[in-house]
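ping. complex inputs:
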Amino acid sequence: MSAPDIAALQPIQAARPWQRDLIGVAVILAAAIAGYFLFPDNLALLTRIIAIMLLVLSLDLVTGYCGVATLGHAALFGAGAYAAGIAAVTFGITEPLSMVAIGAIAGAVAGLVSGVVILRGHGLAQLVLSIAVIHLFHEAANKASTYTGGSDGLSGIAPDPVFGLFEFDLWGRTAYGFGIVLLVLVFVLLRILVRSPFGMLCRGIRQDPVRISAMGASVKASLIKMYVISGAVAGIGGALNAVSTQVVGLDSLSFTNSAEALVMLVLGGAGSLYGAFVGTIVFMWFEHVVSAANPFHWLTIVGALLIAVVLFAPKGLYGTAVTLSQRLTRSGP
Amino acid sequence: MSAVFAVERLKKSFGGLEVTRDVSLSMAKGDRIALIGPNGAGKTTFVNLVTGHLQPNSGRVLMGGEDISRFNPMRRVRAGLVRSFQVTRLFSEMTPEEHIGLAILQREGRSGRMAGSFRAMPQVMREMRNILETLNLSALATVPVGEIAYGQQRLLEIALALALRPKVLLLDEPAAGVPHSDTFLIENALAQLPDDLAVLMIEHDMDLVFRFAKRVIVLAAGEIIFDGSPQAVTEDPRVREAYLGSYVHASSAA
Ligand SMILES: Nc1ncnc2c1ncn2[C@@H]1O[C@H](COP(=O)(O)OP(=O)(O)OP(=O)(O)O)[C@@H](O)[C@H]1O
Ligand SMILES: [Mg+2]
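pong. complex structure:
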């Protein structure tokens, strides 16, 4: 590219981010409305997809943006789910927004705790620590059965109507709407975050932590901060799951849930919030359709899909689509 | 004599290998020092010890008289001690604009802000443009660093260091990997460094050393064997011996 080309591009680039975010919100809303009318009998599944999306977005913050390898991220999601559930069942806090706030706080605390542990290691050690963390959380929830219901799960969560107006109905319409609103709010806040100076600092940490410390910034402190934010996001997802399904099971705190979240992120493309959306929808929809058609081989097919993506589209589905479209527009006029 | 920076009796060994043996030196405002020595002499190790990336076995590092030996690397940078790397360390997916913007925000304690963007901060943008302009990088401001030539990446390393407004700058082979025909770009950049900044440059290219330095320090096998003027260094018998005459040929050929 020659210098005048770049100069001509500058004003466009400056205007672009906000427009893209608005388009992002519009696409989410359009997809939400389409989902509502196309699959009226599957709203519970769609709501669960939204909750998992929040988990995958949260994972994207630490893995995609900061480069932390973790197989224990469901600890943050599960903490939010259990906190919201216990608040409702044991302490009678059944106002849904309060439950979500409690879930966010619990997720943030779980993020702080697991961040402090996981960030002590690097590479393989980090991965092993994250696996230890999820097992410890799982075991703690299992042992504290007075509050969590242990392996039977925590049931009897009966959230109040949203704003005292919208009752959680049997068809899951309210829960779906509630989930969409939460998702859009989180998405907008995260777009602001990843574009902020702090977001840039975190991208720098992923690319070269030594350079970041040579600039005088603390890698560790920044990563822990991001872990806390990520925990709040995952916690909101967990709380949404508790509010919408009205039960919390140990599977929300499982290694499988963590690993699947990572698979969804890689599938969609790490390091962009849109990739987290795409990966979650594709994976969960796939799971739903294929496991119904062929319950024995669905994991085989997911495995094959994953291998194909990692080998032929290492940036994930969304990342590869972006690269392709850029190549097309570049080679155009 | 006001030393902005001093190192006292620094020692480091890896296993049994003594890589830094009792190194002491001090620098004043505006110094232009070249640190030279054969491969493996311990030059990079010296920089790593000073910046806190490695822990010395003994010895002290001082900035403006204050002992910073117990500071972590980040605090040393904030105290005004900034380095560059022998092999460039940049963020390959980020643009020069973002590099410099981040460095300025970091210097001002604003890199942790969770909203807004440096692009909406006029004085950051102005300073960033000035720095990129000074180093002739304006045309590449919005190109990801992974896509720009190595010589320009080396310039960006210097720009990044300048954006942190150091008091002491340690440059580890700023021209390493740059084709000989392009070293003048680096040399021009070095000539633009602020007058009151104390600079210590590690460099193998003796032409560059002689044009840049007012004082030359020679490190061999972890020891300072010479500290004096560029004129005297070629005459010194110990230096000749350490290099087996190799650079003397290079400089007399030039
Ligand atoms: N982390 C380390 N562990 C063990 N030995 C090391 C370590 N770092 C450096 N060394 C050794 O210390 C010696 C000095 O290395 P250093 O990189 O400081 O040399 P240098 O003077 O910068 O050389 P060059 O001109 O090649 O850059 C070398 O023998 C090297 O192998
Ligand atoms: Mg070296």
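The CA atoms of residues 64 and 292 of chain A lie 31 Å apart.
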